[in-house]
Design brief:
- By secondary structure, the chain is α+β, with helices and mostly antiparallel strands.
- It contains two helices and two strands.
- Helix content is 24%, strand content 13%.
- The protein has a two-stranded antiparallel ribbon with strand order 1-2.
- The longest helix is centred in the C-terminal third of the chain and has 17 residues.
- The two termini are 31 Å apart.
- It binds copper (II) ion (CU).
Length: 92
């Protein structure tokens, strides 16, 4: 089993998880939002190797202008209803 490095840990936004292994991650909680954590192998993500961190939920509404996002969501919904290609996995 590996040891945790608290003195000079790797700092990056991607990492490799060893086969049949594990990884530990830590992050400073200073950025309210919904952050996706996922495997970069698409079918792995589709099988469930993804999760979402909700950070400082009470502060999220103040960081997003939902009225500004809504038109894009509406356009997507209209397009998807007519699309020949339907989502069959997680969508990642
Ligand atoms: Cu994977």
């Amino acid at each position: 089993m590996g040891r945790l490095n608290f003195n000079n840990p790797t700092r990056r936004d991607t990492t490799v998880m060893p086969a049949k292994g594990w990884l530990a991650l830590a992050f400073r909680v200073d950025n309210p939002g919904a952050w996706l954590f996922h495997c970069h192998i698409a079918w792995h993500a589709g099988q469930g190797l993804s999760m979402q961190f909700l950070e400082t939920v009470s502060e999220i509404p103040g960081t997003v202008n939902l009225a500004e996002l809504e038109p894009t969501c509406s356009i997507w919904t209209q397009y998807y209803a007519t699309s020949q290609c339907k989502q069959w996995d997680s969508g990642l």
